[in-house]
Amino acid sequence: MSIRPDSRHLYLQVIDQLKRDMKEGKYKEREKLPSEYELSRMLGVSRATLREALRVLEEENIVFRKHGVGTFVNPKPIFSSGIEQLNSVTAMIEDSGKKAGTQYITSEVTKLSAEDKEQFADDELQSVFKIERVRTADNKPVVFCIDKLPENLLPQNSIKREESLFKALEKYANIHVSYALTRIEPVSYQQRIFNILNCDPSQPLLLLKQLHYTEKDEPVLYSSNYFRSDFFRFEVVRKRM
Amino acid sequence: MSIRPDSRHLYLQVIDQLKRDMKEGKYKEREKLPSEYELSRMLGVSRATLREALRVLEEENIVFRKHGVGTFVNPKPIFSSGIEQLNSVTAMIEDSGKKAGTQYITSEVTKLSAEDKEQFADDELQSVFKIERVRTADNKPVVFCIDKLPENLLPQNSIKREESLFKALEKYANIHVSYALTRIEPVSYQQRIFNILNCDPSQPLLLLKQLHYTEKDEPVLYSSNYFRSDFFRFEVVRKRM
DNA sequence: AATACGTCAGAGGTCAGACCTTTGAATTTA
DNA sequence: TAAATTCAAAGGTCTGACCTCTGACGTATT
After folding, report:
1. Is strand C in 7 Å reach of the CB of A9?
2. What three-state secondary structure class fits B182?
3. Does residue A46 lie within 7 Å of nucleic acid chain C, judged by its CB?
4. Who contacts A70 (Cβ-Cβ below 8 Å, separation ≥6)?
């Protein structure tokens, strides 16, 4: 019923397994994967199911297929740092090899602003829990975060026990953030924020306003993150349609 | 109703046909598509092939499938304006209902800068054709573009006959831009650019540095586009992995 | 009546096995 | 030696079957 150990669709499990194998170096960049027939046998699924998985991996630019030749692992120039991949700020910092830290500025319950109301689109919702934090990499401030989530979603103070808000949501509310709708904005000089991040106007900031959703498309977290652009890079592959 | 013969793979043609049908309102938002069996018959392909197409559409967030229920057309909040979709600046302006215009500032042949060399990664390439333009929407300057492409790729002055560089490349060099690797950067105040765009420092700009590629992964165009953020919005769906 | 349960049809998910098309390389031929 | 031919391997497509999930509807229970 509740917990779903491995009742997820087969092709999704195959995707995960293949990604795991690639990460562990079983299949390396530019290398040819075994043929579809072999792979399907190795994984214990039908060729049709394997192909569903490969189709997704190809869409995600992780794999490249050539008719009559084979399936190859793409070199991963962008795929791992692309903006379309959603990570917690904690994960982004740690991925760069730095130590992630957090300084809490304020955390309080407030009424929803007009913008918040528009975002959450929930007439019931009266107030949100608002958290302002500075995230640090090796103790240097690199991101200023304003997070707002429905009141009472998380037990008071549970947040401070976890480095990542994503992890806290999973641990204390059994909520898994699945995706986020993100608006990308440049930031003009705002003294308070630049002071907090200890940078001057010549180091422009990038603002990501993100509304995070669960698997069931319920909005659970609205974040405004101000990134120091000398520390973070955002890239994306844009495809012609 | 069968799909026209075409050299491209069948499932790609199916994708195009379905997108066309959705655009033309044959299948509307939130609406359920015919069942896979029916659809495959309607399109004259096997269910397996249809499923390959649907898998891609699902990956692109255009369609949503639920086991035991059906396949539904996603409402398209982002899919049409998402940053992962590459359009020419001309197309972006026209999509917003404005009239696209161009003011040429300079166009000249220059040696490659260090950055250019790194981007094109072509030892043969000695010099590039550099074009600086201001793009206007209803005669208001909204984007400042610096485009660099290998010398002699286009006939001299052919560019000025086309509004869009993409179109010129197709028309005069039979080159089709397929995708671009894009770096997103905020911009600190630079007097020249702000003067050209006739805006003040409180209207921050967004800079997209884009290396455009052909289908064969050959770099053909390196662009730096400074967008007025009060006119353009960039959004992206970020997915958790 | 209101609720719970059982059944069933329809939809997507998975499977097996066959044949088609493209590629690249080995082989043959001019 | 170089061009043409052949061939095997790999991905692309097809058929048709069965599995599993979901929602609806009818019946039994409370």
Report:
1. yes
2. strand
3. yes
4. A32, A33, A35
Tell me if B6 sits within 8 A of B13, measured CB to CB: yes
Q: Is the CB of B35 under 7 A from strand C?
A: yes
CA–CA distance, A19 with A11 (Å, rounded to integer): 12
CA-based nearest residue in chain A for residue B201: A188
Q: What is the pLDDT of residue B137?
A: 92
pLDDT in tens, A65-95: 999 999 998 876 433 456 777 788 888 888 8
- All domains of chain B, ordered by start, with CATH? 10-73 (1.10.10.10), 89-228 (3.40.1410.10)
The residue of chain B nearest to residue A181, with distances taken between CA atoms, is: B237
Please give the interface size between A and B, counted as residue pairs whose CB atoms are below 8 Å apart. 134
Whether the per-residue pLDDT at B86 is higher than 80: the answer is no
By C1' distance from the Cα of A50, the closest nucleotide is C14
Q: Which residue has the least CA–C1' distance to nucleotide D23?
A: B69
Whether A6 shows a pLDDT value over 70: the answer reads no
Kindly indicate the confidence band of residue B241, based on its pLDDT and cuts at 50, 70 and 90: low
Query: What value, to the nearest 5°, has the Cα angle with vertex B218 and ends A83 and B166?
Result: 80
> Which nucleotide comes closest to A46 if you measure CA to C1'?
C15
d(CA A147, CA A111): 14
Six-digit token string for A185: 């904005």
Residue B238: closest CA among A101, A81, A174: A81
CA B31 to chain centre: 27
CA distance A57 to A97: 27
Q: How far apart are CA B125 and CA B206, in angstroms?
A: 29
- Average pLDDT of chain A to the nearest whole number: 85
Render pLDDT for A221-237 as a digit per residue (tens, 0 to 9): 999 999 998 888 888 87
**Interatomic CA–C1' length for residue A26 and nucleotide C21, angstroms:** 30
Q: How far is A129 from chain B (nearest CA, A)?
A: 23
Strands B219-228 and B205-214: antiparallel
Tokens read off for A147: 């997070």
Check whether A31 has a pLDDT greater than 80: no
